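Review this chain:
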Amino acid sequence: MALAMPPVASELPMVVAVAAGLGLLVALAGIGVMWWLRTRSIGVMMAVVVVVAIAATLAGIVGIIMKMLLEGVVRDFVLSVVAVGGLVGLGVAFVLAKRVVKESRRLVAAVRNMPFVAPKGLPAELQEIANTLEEAYAREQALEGARRELVAWVSHDLRTPLAGMRAMAEALEDGVVADPRTTARYHRQIKLEVERLSAMVDDLFELSRIHAGALRLSRARIGLADLVADTLAGAEPLARAKGVVLTAEAADPVPVEADAGALGRALGNLVVNAIRHTPSDRTVVLRAGVDAGMACLSVTDCCGGIPEEDLPRVFDVAFRGEAARTPTADGGAGLGLAIAQGIVEAHDGMIEVVNDGPGCRFEIRLPLVRG
């Protein structure tokens, strides 16, 4: 029986170099095979990984044998152990790959079966994918429901003024209305309806830009006190006509980086919404200041409050509450809160609403400008 020759320390670098070189060649070949099979089953790719590992080990053994460090029975023992280890590795890889393929097919079947519900008991990565898909499906369903509601709402709100305008135009055209006073009233009403429809179309266009990510902001350093003053001046005529007292409380100058026009529109939408839902002789208050390290704008009204179950949906497109915020004849397009939310979020800010005293409080929070 041949015995193994004792290894020579000076030959160790050569053996390592040979084993590393052969292992690198095997690894490159394995990467090429995996690239060629990249669209095949995960099980096939896992088998390739195991084969590459075994082949790299065998290449190192062959390198040692070539240097005559192992021979005879010792060589046979080493090769046998490597072969058995390779078979065990292939077996484990086969079992694991079979399970991964089975769970992947279960996930695919769940995706094809609508409504999608994430299957349980999947491997961690597949489970995360399934949960993400379930969340995405839920969001898609919510958006689809909102789109259907928006289409129905817009169709209804367009149909009513258009029908009235058509009736008045036909009456004027056919000479049914002849006296100057009624004719002038019809003309004023048609102009008013046209302005309302134009505002609705503008709101829809602005909302589509926000949802498409096409809102372009021209940011500059502005003070919230100036923004509040401009908003107050713009909303004062509406408040006076409604009999609502409009006040403002602005603290020391609070600087923010914002698009003054866009942010002013968001704040104006909140103020107009508050005025429209506040009874006469009651108050709407605008406040500007710093809270918890952020610039804060708030609009507090006396609308009577919003039902708790409706609070999370206040900023949804086309949502209209039934209790405290039932639309009135001067209710506008109904997209103001959704537009305000989109503008604030485009400024990296947050907007929320809470019930406060006799009404509710809308708050806008924006990052402060340091220095």
The first helix runs from residue 12 to 36. The two ends are 85 Å apart (CA to CA). The first strand starts at residue 220 and ends at 223. The CA atoms of residues 5 and 171 lie 116 Å apart.
